[in-house]
Structure formats: C-alpha cells, structure tokens
Amino acid sequence: MNLFEVADSDRKSQYRNMSEVLEACRIQDLSSSTNLKASRIRSLLNAYRLTKAYEPDSKVAYVVEQFPNELVYALGMIPWNIESMAILLAQHGCADSFINLTQQNNVSRDICSFLRGSLGVIMANCYPNPDIVLANDQPCDCLSKLANITSKNYRSPFLSISTPTELNEDTLDYLAGQQRRLMKDMAAALNMEFNEADLDRTVQHSNEAREYFCQTAELLRDYRLPGVSRELLEIFGMNAFGMQENVQLCKTLYQEASDMSKKPENKRSGKRVLWAGQAPDGSHEIMQYVEKEVEVIFWAPLWNSNMMKLNPDDPYRSIAQRAIEYHWHMERFEVNLAEVCDSYGIDGIVISNAWGCRNMLALSPMMREVCGEKKIKYLTINVDFMDRNNYAFNHVKNRIDAFLEILE
To answer: Taking the model in full, what pTM does it have?
Structure first.
C-alpha cells in the first residue's frame, strides 16, 4: 500500500462526505435496539460530540483504543477513536464501500478488518481533519502503526507513548513520566496552555462515572438485566471517561439497572454465556439468535482495568496502572476470566475470533484451559463484523446450534 495525503482537509467537506454515507444507511432496521433510557442518552451524546468534531474551531485528537482520554479532555479536545468510528459504521451496514476502497488501493486482506475499515474511511475523507494524532500501542501495535500512517496522511503532529506489559513500580514510574511529558508536548504542538487543575477536573468526572459503572456491573452478578451488559460494553467502547456528560450516562444506566433488580422476575436464572472478543451490535443476526436461548454477558467491561478508579492525588501513576492493566496479558486475564466465570455464574463462553486479530488467537488457548478447569462449555467462532466478504451466518449457525444444545 502506498501512503497518500488527504487533499481536501476542510471539515465541511468531510462532514458532507460522511453525511452522504449515513444518508445511504438510513433504511437500516434498528427496531431491535434496546429500550434503555441510557442507550438513548448515549446515542444523543455520541451524535453531539461527533458532530462537534466537524466544526472548524474544534480541537480534535485522533486516538486509538483504550488511550487515556482523561489527558485529551484535560486540554479541551475531542478524542476521535479512529477504529471505534469505523466499527460504528459497520454496525449499521455502512462499511462496504470503505472496505472496497482499501482493496482498490491494494491493502492486504490479511490485516485486521477493523484496521482496514478505519483506513478506508480515511481514504474516503469522511473523518474530521485531526489537529493531532495520539497512540499508546493498545490493544495492539497495529493500531499504533495505523495512527502513525494517519498522521502522515493528514500532515498532523504524531505523539505516542509506550505502555509496558508488566506491572511493577519501575514500569509505573516509567509510564507516568511519559504521560507527564505527553501533556507538555501536546500543549506545545497545539500552542495551547495546560493547567494541572484541568486534569484534576477530568479525573473527578472519570471517577464519578466509573463509580456508577462498577455498581451496575455488580448488580449483574445476581440479576438478569436485559440490555445492561450490552450498554456497559458500549460505554466501555466509547471511552468517554473524563467527559462530564458521561457521568450522567453511567448514573442513568445504574438507576435503570437498580430499578430492574427490584423486580422478582429479574432474579438471575437460566443459562449464562460470556462473550469474549469483538461483539456485533445487538441487532446483528448472531446476537439475536444466541440471545433467544441464553443470557449473554460481555467480558470486556468486567476486566480489572474497567473496575479501577483513579487516584486524584497521583493521577498520572493511576492512569499508568490502568493502562498496563488494559494490556492483553495472558496471566492477568486468566485470573480475571476465572473470577468472572465464578462470580457471574457463567455456563459457557463464546470465543469470537475476529478476522486478522492476532490478540484473540493468542488468548484463545488460555480461555479454553479456564473452561476445562471450570468444566464450562465453550464455542470458538471465526467471524468478521466489518468485511461481509468474510462472513456468512450459515457458516457459524450449525456450530452455535450444537453449542446451545450441549448447554441445555
């Protein structure tokens, strides 16, 4: 693949390009979406912040998955997750033209489809022009490479931090120091002022939202709460911790989950399946098919990293600890997976291998070992929720049927 430069960096043109794509997708049937009030708030919040990013005066920072966005919000910038935005388009059937564009430009189909989809949106010039591009090699080094390519395409400053895998005092000091320097480098690159009090404020917002997030996850242990685990997954994917409006979103979800838990019929019952790996949206045929038979709990929101609140007295060090916890570390994930299976009453695990994702392929043997130790059934499916050329429901339906049958 040859590098290219985005010729028209005018955000009005980019907004128009994106609007044309979305207009073509409006016939999509979303009738199966959740009825949670929190889901509607999230949709409105996403629409507002994404539209805001196209305004000429907005400061936009492209970020990768699990970047510590508290640092971005502290400078008054809008974080734009280049991969999550492409996934959002794919959820509503809008990714085909972008995938086709990458193939026309000789991007290898062996690369993770989520990265190819993201690159396709950039090639189509549908994202708002970034003021800066930020990376932290999580959850994979491929995202950092994509961020670096993106910065060259848009001729934008590129800054990155390296997150160690092991968690100890030395790695915490090392990463916290990088983050302190990053704040100064971001401010200098954008000719902005940075005040530590602004970071303190975003940390407070992050902790307030996280408190409601954790309380909601706790309720899921003992109650069947339709749509709640899915909403926790979506909030995790937004990575809006540090944004003031996210506090109200998480609070609303907790209040709804708490109200549902008071109804006798919502006491936990029936079979529970833990979904590990990339999950399609709730209206996808796979999710509709599985959830007719069992309750699905999503693993990612229940990682230890998502249960952490930040230390307001030493925010950089606690953000560093959370970042290291986010790494797909085999031994730490094994401990967490075993605990989740026990405390959430898991009967089976769906291991969802997304096309081209090396991380999930590496984690799969560990998850199968945990299932063997816990005498839990598991199903491995190979799917592609971005590139429909690599997916057909009939390819996995028979295997899902057999899995559901042995669960019963």
So the answer is: 0.93
